[in-house]
């Protein structure tokens, strides 16, 4: 694995802080009704993305995830201003403002969404890996899902075929403890989710999802296996989300103390402490990064606010139409 140097820690700190603050801003503008529809935030889970990005090659490797999907495309190189604009429903957004929160997508940046159907992205992820294998490209697909998604039939069917066809895919469960308001303990006798891989003879294991170094090490090993023809891996990242499932969640299913406990192992604080302890950065350096992050969030907000809504005609351009559909007369 690439060494985790001072520069890597500095990048992790700045990236993760930016993702956190970018989403804090989204929460604020959501309350002002500038961003509408559903909004699922990634606060707390940032180390999973930071560690992954250290271990992959974003030029060849692909990411696909569920609806908690605002910061992954930014990590893959999409301009954050365009992500913010998409959430505002503006024409300058990644999907011309027509997709919104759950559907960020950028094929050019190897980010394949953004999927609202729980578990729906799991077979799609295997499909992306199948294409890489079929066309003899050496890309690896990283397919993310929540702890709730692993109980969908699609996971079990996909695991079987992915193993049978020896696909270059890494399945990653981000176990944040809850599927909406339902804890893992209420949905499964066996709470070590990674063990689901055992039934398919798939290499699998648990990972500390609050620590980007641990994430990077595990993802590196899995990606190397996949790239060298060794097939799929299933990793369970043990993580936590600080905010509710979506913006309309009263969070009666957990205590404030539980949230505070997890904040003690917050990935951003952990990385900041390493920067200070190892003397990789001084307080003034941290303050400079914090200021850069704040300014960039402001820039994104300004860009989204000032952009125009899409022209109404665009709606008709993006509707799928099959010219030879035989059952309904669709042309007036
Ligand atoms: C097939 C399907 N069933 C139910 C829902 C409603 N739903 C949306 S999110 C969610 C919980 C999923 O939790 P998890 O997989 O743990 O992901 P997290 O939100 O924690 O990231 C449910 C049940 C849905 N979107 N799709
Ligand atoms: Mg969950």
TrEMBL record:
It comes from the Bacteria. GO terms for biological process: pyruvate decarboxylation to acetyl-CoA. Keywords: Oxidoreductase, Pyruvate, Thiamine pyrophosphate. Its EC number is 1.2.4.1. Residues 15-310 form the Dehydrogenase E1 component domain. Gene3D superfamilies: 3.40.50.970. The keyword NADP does not apply. It is an enzyme of class 1 (oxidoreductase). The pyruvate dehydrogenase complex catalyzes the overall conversion of pyruvate to acetyl-CoA and CO(2). Heterodimer of an alpha and a beta chain. This is Pyruvate dehydrogenase E1 component subunit alpha.
């Amino acid at each position: 694995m690439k060494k985790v140097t001072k520069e890597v820690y500095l990048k992790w700190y700045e990236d993760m802080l930016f993702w956190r603050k970018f989403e804090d801003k989204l929460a604020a503008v959501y309350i002002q009704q500038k961003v509408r529809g559903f909004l699922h935030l990634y606060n707390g889970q940032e180390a999973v993305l930071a560690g992954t990005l250290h271990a992959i090659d974003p030029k060849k490797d692909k990411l696909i995830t569920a609806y908690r999907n605002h910061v992954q495309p930014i990590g893959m190189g999409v301009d954050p201003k365009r992500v913010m604009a998409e959430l505002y429903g503006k024409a300058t957004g990644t999907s011309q403002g027509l997709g919104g929160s759950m559907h960020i997508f950028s094929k050019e940046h190897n980010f394949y969404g953004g999927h609202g159907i729980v578990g729906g992205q799991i077979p799609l992820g295997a499909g992306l890996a199948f294409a890489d294998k079929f066309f003899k490209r050496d890309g690896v697909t990283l397919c993310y899902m929540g702890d709730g998604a692993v109980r969908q039939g699609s996971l079990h069917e996909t695991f079987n075929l992915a193993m049978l066809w020896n696909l270059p895919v890494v399945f990653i469960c981000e176990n944040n403890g809850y599927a909406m308001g339902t804890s893992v303990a209420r949905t499964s006798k066996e709470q070590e989710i990674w063990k689901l891989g055992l039934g398919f003879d798939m290499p699998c294991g648990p990972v500390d999802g609050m620590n980007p170094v641990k994430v990077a090490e595990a993802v590196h090993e899995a990606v190397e296996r996949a790239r060298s023809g060794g097939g799929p891996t299933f990793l369970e990242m043990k993580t936590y989300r600080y905010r509710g499932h979506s913006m309309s969640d009263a969070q009666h299913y957990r205590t404030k103390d539980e949230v505070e406990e997890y904040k003690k192992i917050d990935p951003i604080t952990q990385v900041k402490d390493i920067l200070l302890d190892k003397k990789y950065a001084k307080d003034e350096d941290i303050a400079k990064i914090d200021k850069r992050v704040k300014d960039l969030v402001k820039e994104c907000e300004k860009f989204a606010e000032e952009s125009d809504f899409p022209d109404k005609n665009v709606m008709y351009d993006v509707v799928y139409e099959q010219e030879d559909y035989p059952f309904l007369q669709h042309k007036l």
